[in-house]
């Protein structure tokens, strides 16, 4: 049996098969945990205009989120509590906010960046005026003038349907893969293969979380290959791919975690040697540090397959493309197509 978060039929949104109708199987379980969250006492704007401390947020609560620069009521779909190191940001306005170093804030429109790199940058902050669903989001800016360590604190991460919320008036992003850490329903290999067969496509993408955490994923891949599906396995690269089938119709899409993910230490570079020319590597590029790191990896570890540079969140697409062309890099620059079409909506 496999624990499955969701199955759905959509177009492949990234990589060399972008745009192809594909059946997706999202498995539960992830061995990489980002701590993108404010401390428990941070005030969150709820959908009824009241403020609630993050530690009191529960699954099913409705917060005020935003989508395409309009307010939108957003349901909380997951919460995780832990204790970790935090930093304190002092703003030009004199206000302070305490978060984990990786917590992403919005700045310069819809772009986001982790908190510990925000020095000198202006974070988007809620502007004056009414706060109603579907109404245009009004925002101003508050510049970060100081960043300092602030010890450890109890934190509460929560994920919302829009993958964002308003914390202490600041527009905040949350990690969009937390729902893959736990939960889901039990499914047999046969039931998943039969469901895949019902859509008329020959492309199946197995994703997560991290699919290789579940041992039954190997029988699933083999059975799909027996049915002559082209199977795309999306993996974080933090688990060996040695036992993945080597069939011509088996494609491994492997991430190499870049510095902005705070997960570089989980990369298993020996995995690159196990990949074939039909497989591909993906680097999510958020800033210049990510770009330089990615260049160094492809120079150090020769690879015959496709190499994808994916701009984080679709931001800086023009700049990244021009940089790749200028430096004559043999990579493909591809954004996530499904997010251009549907935004942060899940199940597409």
Sum up the structure in keywords.
348 residues, alpha/beta, TIM Barrel, Endonuclease - Pi-scei, Chain A, domain 1
What would your notes on this structure say?
It is a single chain. The chain has 348 residues and is an alpha/beta fold. The protein folds into 2 domains: 2-32 and 181-342, TIM Barrel; 43-174, Hedgehog/Intein (Hint) domain (Endonuclease - Pi-scei, Chain A, domain 1, Beta Complex). Helices cover 15% and strands 38% of the residues. The strands form 5 sheets. It has a 9-stranded mixed β-sheet with strand order 14-1-2-15-16-17-18-19-20. Strands 5, 6, 7, 10 and 11 form a 5-stranded antiparallel β-sheet that branches. β8 and β9 form a beta hairpin. α1 (189-197) packs parallel to α2. The longest helix is centred in the C-terminal third of the chain and has 13 residues, at 288-300. The two termini are 24 Å apart. The model has no long low-confidence stretch (mean pLDDT 86).
* Strand line-up in the sheet with most strands: 14-1-2-15-16-17-18-19-20
What count of structural domains?
Answer: 2
Secondary-structure class = alpha/beta
CATH superfamily (homologous) name of the largest domain: Aldolase class I
| Mass-distribution shape | globular
Number of strands: 20
Radius of gyration: 21 Å
Largest sheet: 9 strands, mixed
Low-pLDDT stretches are: none
> CATH fold name of the largest domain, please?
TIM Barrel
Order of helices and strands: EEEEEEEEEEEEEEHEHEEHEHEHEH
In round numbers, the mean pLDDT is 86
First CA to last CA: what distance? Answer: 24 Å
Number of helices: 6
């Amino acid at each position: 049996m496999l624990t499955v978060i969701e199955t759905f039929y959509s177009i492949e949104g990234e990589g060399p098969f972008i745009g192809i109708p594909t059946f997706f199987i999202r498995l539960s379980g992830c061995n990489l945990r980002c701590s993108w969250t404010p401390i428990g006492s941070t005030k969150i704007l709820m959908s009824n205009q009241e403020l609630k401390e993050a530690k009191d947020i529960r699954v099913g609560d409705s917060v005020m989120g935003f989508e395409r620069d309009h307010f939108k009521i957003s349901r909380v779909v997951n919460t995780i509590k832990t204790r970790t190191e935090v930093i304190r940001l002092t703003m030009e306005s004199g206000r302070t906010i305490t978060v984990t170093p990786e917590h992403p804030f919005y700045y310069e429109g819809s772009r986001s960046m982790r908190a510990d790199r925000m020095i000198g940058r202006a974070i988007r902050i809620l502007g004056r005026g009414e706060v109603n669903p579907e109404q245009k989001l009004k925002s101003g800016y508050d510049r970060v003038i100081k960043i300092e360590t602030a010890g450890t604190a109890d934190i509460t991460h929560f994920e919302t349907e829009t993958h964002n919320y308003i914390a202490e008036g600041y527009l905040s992003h949350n990690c969009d893969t937390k729902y893959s850490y736990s939960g889901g329903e039990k499914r047999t290999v046969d039931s998943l293969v039969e469901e895949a067969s019902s859509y008329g496509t020959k492309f199946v993408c197995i994703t997560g979380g991290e699919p290789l955490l579940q041992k039954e994923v190997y029988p699933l891949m083999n059975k799909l290959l027996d049915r002559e599906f082209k199977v795309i396995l999306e993996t974080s690269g933090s688990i060996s791919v040695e036992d993945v089938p080597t069939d011509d119709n088996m494609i491994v899409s492997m991430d190499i975690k870049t510095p902005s993910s705070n997960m570089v230490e989980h990369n298993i570079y020996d995995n690159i040697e196990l990949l074939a020319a039909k497989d591909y590597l993906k680097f999510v590029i958020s800033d210049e540090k990510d770009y330089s790191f990615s260049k160094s990896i492809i120079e150090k570890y020769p690879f015959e397959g496709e190499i994808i540079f994916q701009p984080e969140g679709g931001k800086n697409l023009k700049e990244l493309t021009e940089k790749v062309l200028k430096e004559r890099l043999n990579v493909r620059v591809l954004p996530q197509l499904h997010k251009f079409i549907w935004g942060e909506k899940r199940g597409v």
